[in-house]
């Protein structure tokens, strides 16, 4: 007889404002995690057209990423992890920094977890069927 016990889910941290929304661009966390890799954002003599083009590219990429996350919600996903570990789960959500994935019914080589948080650093690839 196999009895599986549900695992409690840890609440993700709230954002810096009172309602848990947004972020402070001056915070050490933002500076560490969200530095720009495009030099135009850092230059003091920024050309407005170049900055506008950069912002447009970033907004398009962000929208595609958010649409991908939205389409994965409540779908079966397959995760390839380090040490050649393959797991399957139902995707729930991601935190704002994409550091953790919340999943349900996680099927691992050692058993099934009702709810779990998976660190994105441990995931090599994540696939799902449309």
From TrEMBL:
InterPro entries: SMN_gemin7
Cellular component aspect of the GO annotation: SMN-Sm protein complex
Xref: CDD domains: Gemin7 (cd11677)
Pfam families, per database record: Gemin7 (PF11095)
GO biological process, one term: spliceosomal snRNP assembly
Domain of life: Eukaryota
Signal peptide limits: none
UniProt-recorded name of the protein: Uncharacterized protein
């Amino acid at each position: 007889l196999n009895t599986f016990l549900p695992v409690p889910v840890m609440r993700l941290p709230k954002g810096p404002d009172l309602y848990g929304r947004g972020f402070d661009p001056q915070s050490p966390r933002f500076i560490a995690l969200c530095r720009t890799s495009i030099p135009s954002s850092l230059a003091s003599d920024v050309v407005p057209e170049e900055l506008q083009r950069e912002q447009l590219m970033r907004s398009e990429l962000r929208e595609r990423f958010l649409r991908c996350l939205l389409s994965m919600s409540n779908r079966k996903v397959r995760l390839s992890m380090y040490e050649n570990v393959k797991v399957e789960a139902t995707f729930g959500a991601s935190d704002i920094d994409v550091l953790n994935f919340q999943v349900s019914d996680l099927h691992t080589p050692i058993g099934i977890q009702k709810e779990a948080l998976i660190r994105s650093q441990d995931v090599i690839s994540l696939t799902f069927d449309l």
